[in-house]
Amino acid sequence: LSSMFGNLEGIITPLLDLGVLRRSVPKEVLTGLVCLLCFLSATCFALQSGSYWLQVFDSYAAPLNLIIFAFFEVVGIAYVYGMPRFSDDIACMTGRRPGLYWRVTWKVVSPLLLLTIFVAYIAVLAWTPLSYRAWDPQYAWFPSRQEKSYPGWVQATCVLLCFLPALWVPAVALVQQLAKRRQKQDTWQDGCPKLQEGGAS
């Protein structure tokens, strides 16, 4: 139950902070709606095939996405935010800047390791047939579980589970870049003096 509170706050707080939902909606109602949505989306795990769905989600939803998110975080901090700024932040918090070992690890070693793991994971997924172990009383070696291949639509679901959550990272970055570009164009068309001075200099 305690983890459920944390999960709910992880959903509700960003929705309120980003202004996706109005503050006029009572938080109790919002919490109830989120709980109802989570309940309805989790009913597939309570079906007769629930253990198989759990295996699909457990095997394909989390591992690849965690690798991708970690890679984007490392690259974002080391190259987008910048290692000098990050080192300044650490110096502000701890009183000293990180040494050469840590800077090289964050900037070179970690991205390369994560990229290697990502490529290896994709290769294993591509070469290993997607299968599951089913309970089948007709199986010759029952009660051992029989290895069966997933149907095509389940394989498509596995691929979507692997990549859909991770697509939000580049999608949001692209949307923000397009919004910034549009804002710059609008400002330029309005004849902003600051932009004109910057262009002249």
Automatic annotation (TrEMBL):
Na(+) binds at residue 3. The keyword Transmembrane helix applies. It is a multi-pass membrane protein. Keywords: Membrane, Metal-binding, Sodium, Transmembrane, Transmembrane helix, Transport. The chain crosses the membrane at residues 29-48, 60-83, 104-130, 150-175. GO terms for molecular function: metal ion binding. GO terms for cellular component: plasma membrane. One of its GO terms (biological process) is amino acid transport. It comes from the Eukaryota. It is found in: Membrane. SUPFAM superfamilies: SNF-like (SSF161070). PANTHER family: INACTIVE SODIUM-DEPENDENT NEUTRAL AMINO ACID TRANSPORTER B(0)AT3 (PTHR11616:SF109), SODIUM/CHLORIDE DEPENDENT TRANSPORTER (PTHR11616). This is Sodium-dependent neutral amino acid transporter B(0)AT3. It comes from Neovison vison. The lineage of its organism: Eukaryota, Metazoa, Chordata, Craniata, Vertebrata. The gene is S6A18.
